[in-house]
Amino acid sequence: MKVTLAEFRASAATPAAIPAAAHPEVAIAGRSNVGKSSLINRMTGRRSLARTSRTPGCTRGLIFYDVNAALTLVDLPGYGYASRSQTERRQWKTLVERYLATREELAGVLILVDCRRGPQAEELELAEYLTSVGLAYTFVMTKTDKLGRSELSRRSADLREALEPAPVIATSSESGAGIDTLWKWIRAAIATERQG
Ligand SMILES: Nc1nc2c(ncn2[C@@H]2O[C@H](COP(=O)(O)OP(=O)(O)OP(=O)(O)O)[C@@H](O)[C@H]2O)c(=O)[nH]1
Ligand SMILES: [Mg+2]
Predict the structure, then answer these.
(1) Which residue has better confidence, 151 or 89?
(2) CB within 6 Å of ligand 1 — which residues?
(3) Cα(53) to centroid(ligand 1), Å
(4) Higher pLDDT, 62 or 194
């Protein structure tokens, strides 16, 4: 997809602060440091639209980015960040669960997985939850530039087999690999949601 306009709209650190939806939304979920914010930058062709960092826990609230005045990408705060307090983790869970469970305009969710680690319990639980509420999702392998070609094709094949029938899209925010495929998936998810 050709992105001509991408802009920050809002951030929400509490359920009450979540803004009304302006467009269909696609949420980007995954553990801290997996590459959610980097993916948003690559997808929109804006180097520093979303703040990224080597230090996990960079993105704190839900962050809403409008794209082409047609859809909104929602950067979810990362989980699995060990040095967070119990209270913070509970707040995170309430915030994200509330959003996922109640957002009428949510057309789909990207579940990001580091291509070198594969999905863990949290990602599989999220997928199960999304299935149970009838929300479309795809797994997205991130950082594929970090693996050699044969290692990557072996891992992709393993993941696809393990996660079937869910789709798996291999991407790199560094090289731009897989970004077109990801946009295609998003367009289809939004079109399907409109019909349903
Ligand atoms: N080589 C490579 N590094 C990447 C890629 N995507 C992200 N990174 C690096 O991984 C680190 C974390 O990226 P972020 O995009 O900030 O991760 P995040 O998921 O938004 O993290 P939180 O906001 O903490 O939840 C940064 O140092 C990025 O430069 C990629 O495709 N390839
Ligand atoms: Mg982030």
Answers:
(1) 151
(2) 30, 32-38, 52-54, 56-59, 78, 142-143, 145-146, 172-174
(3) 6
(4) 62
DSSP lists the bridge partners of residue 79 as 31
The CATH number covering residue 25 comes to 3.40.50.300
* Model pLDDT for residues 41-75, shown as the tens digit of each residue: 999 999 999 998 888 777 778 999 999 999 999 99
Average pLDDT of the segment spanning 89-103:
88
CA of 20 to the centre of ligand 1 (A): 28
- Domain extent, residue 36, equals 6-195
pLDDT in the model for residue 93: 82
